[in-house]
Amino acid sequence: MSLREPSALLAAVAMSLLAGCGLLVPKLPPQQSAIPAEWPLPPTTGTGLELPAPATAAADNQPTTDNTPAAGVATADMGWRDFFVDPRLEELIALALANNRDLRVAVLNVERARAQYRIQRADRVPSVTATGALARSGGEALPVSEEASVTAGVAGFELDLFGRVRNLSRAQLERYFAQEEARRAAQLSLIAELANAWLTLGADRELQRLARETLANRQQVLALTVKRHELGAVSALDVAQAETVVEMARTDVARYGGLVATDINALTLLAGAPIPATLLPEKFDLRASGLGALPLGLPSEVLLRRPDIRRSERVLRAANANIGAARAAFFPSISLTGSAGYASDDLSGVFDTGNRIWSFSPRVNLPIFAGGRNIAGLRSATVDRDIALAQYEQAIQAGFREVADALALTRTLAEQKASQQALLAAATRADELSRARYESGRDSYLVLLDAQRTLYGAQQSLIATDLAEQANRVSLYKVLGGGWRESSPR
């Protein structure tokens, strides 16, 4: 037999063992989320979601700052600094990302998962230790003796012939990746929640301003009505009705004042630090965010880039790797323990020639009867994989519904806003005509009061619709997976 034949035989044995290791891990079962290949109607986001136009060039031909993402950038890759166009909101988001406690916990969970993976990965390589010992003994009638030794060796290293240790390490690695995706999902949720709170504060301040203007206007009407009553032009009923609408407006001013205070408290909690007053909105801004219209026929596979769905996929892969580790428990395992060093009766001559020692003790563990423990472990790992698969499919279904809801609301909110604007214009005209007819004595104050209430309600409804439209735009950006990058790839 030539020298090459043993090497070839060893290589063949090694390849067969490696092939056997790969067969122990089953293939990932295909997910069957049963979602359509394309989004339901409306097929596009429609009007109202165009990207913000770049700033106009100055007269001295200075270059403009284009805050829009590069053409062709997917929503999941659109950075939050490119989506939100208000610089105050961008600074507030940066403040929250640096100080929010929930996000800090998510980051620490990633660090813990990384450490746990490194601990598990250490089992794949032998752990070498060095030991030095000195023992002196003696007695009243015995001479003093000493024994010194210096050894280095490996204890309990498992030869991973069937991939048990490697699959456990792979499962821990997937869990580490899952924690990283969870951190991204937490950041995405924080940005969306902070933006909605910021928009809500702007809308409540706008409603508070409207209530104050309405209160001032109705106080003027009340003063005029009181004078006309003193002159006998109107009855006491008109005065009482004017006082009623004044107090209703005063109530709204106080109510919106409380909402503004709670909105600021909510923003402070999300930011995790005191917020400078310069970063808070003074009024409701309709251009706080920008998102281009989705292309026609956008496939639903874009959901697979969402951090929460990718986290579910990582958990599924970890559970699948655990099946390979559970299957490997049915096969023999070999552990090696060995050491080499020096031992001597004299410490000064411990490294002299002839004092070398060594030991080698392999151990083979052959599972014969374990009371069904290995079978139950494999069954448990398989069930865990099936549970992770069901959760993965559920995450895809939930993501599809969230995107479909946001797309549906985009069209309906645009139509609702157009209707609210038309209603506001008609209510404004009706208020003007009712005021003129009342002052000329052709209508009672009750008709004017009804027109004022309609106008006030139309103004409030339009602000609420604008807020819902902006919030839905942020929601669409979130559910499409955007928000975990700071800037879009250029």
Task: Explain briefly what this protein structure is.
Helix content is 58%, strand content 9%. With 490 residues, the chain is of the alpha+beta class.
Model regions low in confidence, pLDDT < 50 over at least 5 residues: 1-20, 43-71
Fraction in helix:
55-70%
> What is the CATH domain class?
Mainly Alpha
Number of DSSP E strands: 5
One letter per element, helices H and strands E, the order comes to HHHHEEHHHEEEHH
Structure overview:
The relative contact order is 0.16. By secondary structure, the chain is of the alpha+beta class. Strand 1 (128-137) and strand 2 form a beta hairpin. It has nine helices and five strands. 58% of the residues lie in helices and 9% in strands. The longest helix has 67 residues, at 164-230. It has a single domain, classed as Outer membrane efflux proteins (OEP) (Up-down Bundle), CATH 1.20.1600.10. Strands 1, 2, 3, 4 and 5 form a five-stranded antiparallel β-sheet that branches.
Chart the SSEs and their pairings.
Blueprint: H1 4-24, H2 80-83, H3 87-99, H4 101-121, E1 128-137, E2 145-159, H5 164-230, H6 236-271, H7 307-328, E3 333-344, E4 356-360, E5 363-365, H8 373-439, H9 445-479
Which descriptors would you attach to this protein?
9 helices, disordered N terminus, five-stranded antiparallel β-sheet, elongated, Outer membrane efflux proteins (OEP), 9% strand, 5 strands, 490 residues, alpha+beta
